[in-house]
Amino acid sequence: MNMKDAFRFQNKLKALMCEATAILEDRRNIVKVKTTHLRSKVMSDTQDAVVEEAAPSEYAGHANEVAAFLMSLLEEREKLCRAIHTAKNSLDLDMDSEVGLNRQRQDLAEVFRHMAMLRNSEKTIAGGGSGFRFNGEGNQVSYRCDATQVTTIDFDRNKIRGMATALSKKADEISMSLDKCLVNTEVSYEPPFDMNDSFEDILSDFIEKSTAA
Predict the structure, then answer these.
(1) Which of 33, 67, 154, 162 has the fewest beta carbons closer than 10 A?
(2) Rounded mean pLDDT, 32-56
C-alpha cells in the first residue's frame, strides 16, 4: 500500500481499538449478575426466583476474545508504525517536519494577508471628544465635542503583501511534494483485513477464528 492508504489504515486501527475498548469498559459486558429472590425464607412452600441481568451487547461473554482482539490490533499498529517510519526515512523530504512548518507558513501568510487589507482612514466621532471649561459661575465643568480619528498603517504594505505571497507559494509547493510522497511512497505492510470492513465483521471473524483454534 502507499503511504496515504497506510495512514488511513492507521486511523482504522485506532478507531477499532476505541470501539473494542468501549466494550470492555462497560462492566455489564465483563461480569454476570445473578440475583436470587429468597422467597422460600418468607414462604417455605415457595421456590426461590433467580433473575439474571440481560447483557447489553452480543459481545458479553467474549471478554477474553475482545481483550485478545485489542492486543492483536495494538500489534498491528506497532508493525504499521515501523513500516511507515522506514518508508519516511527513504524520502529526501522530512515529512513530519515539513507538515509542521507548512502549517506555520499558512498561518503566517494569513496574518500577513489580514495586515495587507488594512487601509489608512479618517472618521469623525460625534460626541467622541471631551474637555473642561469654566461656566458663568466660575466653576470648572466638563463638556463633549466631536472628535476626528485618523488611522495610519505603521508598516510597509507592499513588503507584507510580498511576504504573504511568498509564504503561500512555498506552502503550495511543499503541499504538492507531500501529496506526491503520500501517493508514490510504498509502505511495506500487509493489512490483516479490508479497510472497508465493519467493526462487527472484523471482531466477529476474530472471535470465530479464536474459538475454532
Answers:
(1) 154
(2) 87
Overall number of domains in the chain:
2
The model's pTM is 0.73
Residue 121 dihedral angles phi and psi, to the nearest 5°: -155, 160
Q: Pairing between strand 34-37 and 140-151?
A: unpaired
Which is it for strands 121-134 and 49-52: parallel, antiparallel or unpaired? unpaired
Across 171-199, average pLDDT: 95
- Is residue 44 a contact partner of residue 115, using CB atoms and an 8 Å limit? no
Long-range contacts of 157-161 (CB under 8 A, 24+ apart): 157/115, 157/116, 157/118, 160/112, 160/115, 160/116, 161/112, 161/113, 161/116
CA distance 135 to 141: 7
How do residues 115-166 score in pLDDT, each as one tens digit?
999 999 999 999 889 988 888 888 898 989 999 999 999 999 999 999 999 9
Do 49 and 74 belong together in one domain? yes
- The domain of 155 spans 94-129+143-184
Residues 2, 23, single domain; the answer is yes
